[in-house]
């Protein structure tokens, strides 16, 4: 940790090879899964464009933080267009997320559509710009961070629906770009040890501990996501892969 800035310094130095590093856009990069993914990519030699509503928490010469509200369509378009104007993106990882839990009879609150705008509409706007550009360059990786609750869970219908939509979007987009060196996948964790668990908006909807007896760690999700961005993962596309600690096993 850099004492003067409070940012996490993950090491590394800017050298003559900097311009040749692969470049990734990672949303939700200030905490939780997004931060773990960004840090892992930096260690692996990527340049990372981190996006979050909160201030950047990573200090690294190959990391650039961007403050943006991805629920704002105009701001999202401007951000992505600006990044593409600086050069191609080799990867898009949409890890930004929000939990809104409510039972039937309480689904019409003022923030009821926030999961849809952040998870689905933001992913759609980013992919609509980034994927055609990847096709033009003949390479690229997109990973959407979903949730194993996408199949449905009492009290979390709107959150689950937004995550289910990511699976349909990923499979549809993957079918369009599969012949162009571009892959699109979803990684769906079970309850993960992130600041989202402490969000007061999810009071009364405690996370369900996976059968392994502990919460999934962000680094465990990041390991799978970063693998899917590698050349060795070129044959994996249109898939929803669970990191569930046994939560999806029959019991």
* Biggest pleated-sheet summary: 7 strands, parallel
| Quaternary organization | single chain
Strand content: 15-25%
User: Kindly state the mean pLDDT as a whole number?
Assistant: 88
Strand order of the largest sheet: 5-3-2-6-7-8-9
Give the class from helix and strand content and strand pairing: alpha/beta
Please provide the ordered H/E string of secondary-structure elements.
Answer: EEHEEEHEHEHEHE
How would you sum up the global shape? globular
Radius of gyration: 18 Å
Question: What is the secondary structure topology, with strand pairs?
Answer:
Blueprint: E1 8-9, E2 23-27, H1 32-43, E3 47-52, E4 58-59, E5 63-67, H2 73-85, E6 91-94, H3 114-137, E7 140-145, H4 157-177, E8 182-189, H5 218-228, E9 240-243
Parallel strand pairs: 1-4, 2-3, 2-6, 3-5, 6-7, 7-8, 8-9
Structural account:
- With 251 residues, the chain is an alpha/beta fold.
- It is 32% helix and 17% strand.
- It has five helices and nine strands.
- The protein has helices at residues 32-43, 73-85, 114-137, 157-177, 218-228; strands at residues 8-9, 23-27, 47-52, 58-59, 63-67, 91-94, 140-145, 182-189, 240-243.
- Strand 8, helix 5 (218-228) and strand 9 form a beta-alpha-beta unit.
- Helix 2 runs parallel beside helix 3 and helix 3 packs parallel to helix 4.
- The longest helix has 24 residues, at 114-137.
- The chain is globular, with a radius of gyration of 18 Å.
- 43% of the residues are buried.
């Amino acid at each position: 940790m850099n004492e003067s800035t409070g940012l996490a310094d993950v090491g590394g130095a800017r050298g003559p090879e900097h311009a040749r590093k692969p470049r990734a856009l990672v949303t939700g990069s200030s905490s939780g899964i997004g931060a773990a993914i960004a840090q892992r990519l930096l260690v692996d030699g990527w340049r990372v464009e981190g996006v979050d509503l909160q201030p950047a928490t990573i200090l690294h010469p190959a990391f650039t933080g961007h403050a943006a509200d991805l629920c704002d369509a105009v701001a999202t378009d401007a951000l992505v267009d600006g990044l593409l104007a600086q050069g191609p993106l080799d990867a898009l990882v949409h890890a930004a997320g929000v939990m809104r839990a409510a039972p039937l009879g309480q689904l019409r609150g003022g923030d009821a559509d926030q999961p849809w705008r952040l998870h689905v509409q933001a992913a759609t706007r980013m992919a609509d710009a980034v994927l055609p550009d990847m096709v033009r360059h003949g390479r690229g990786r997109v990973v959407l961070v979903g949730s194993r609750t996408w199949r449905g869970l009492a009290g979390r219908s709107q959150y689950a629906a937004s995550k289910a939509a990511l699976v349909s979007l990923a499979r549809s987009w993957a079918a369009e770009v599969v012949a162009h060196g571009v892959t699109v996948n979803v990684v769906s964790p079970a309850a993960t040890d992130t600041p989202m668990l402490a969000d007061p908006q999810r009071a009364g909807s405690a996370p369900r501990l996976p059968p392994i007896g502990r919460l999934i760690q962000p680094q465990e999700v990041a390991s799978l996501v970063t693998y899917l961005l590698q050349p060795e993962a070129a044959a994996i596309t249109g898939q929803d892969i669970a990191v569930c600690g046994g939560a999806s096993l029959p019991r």
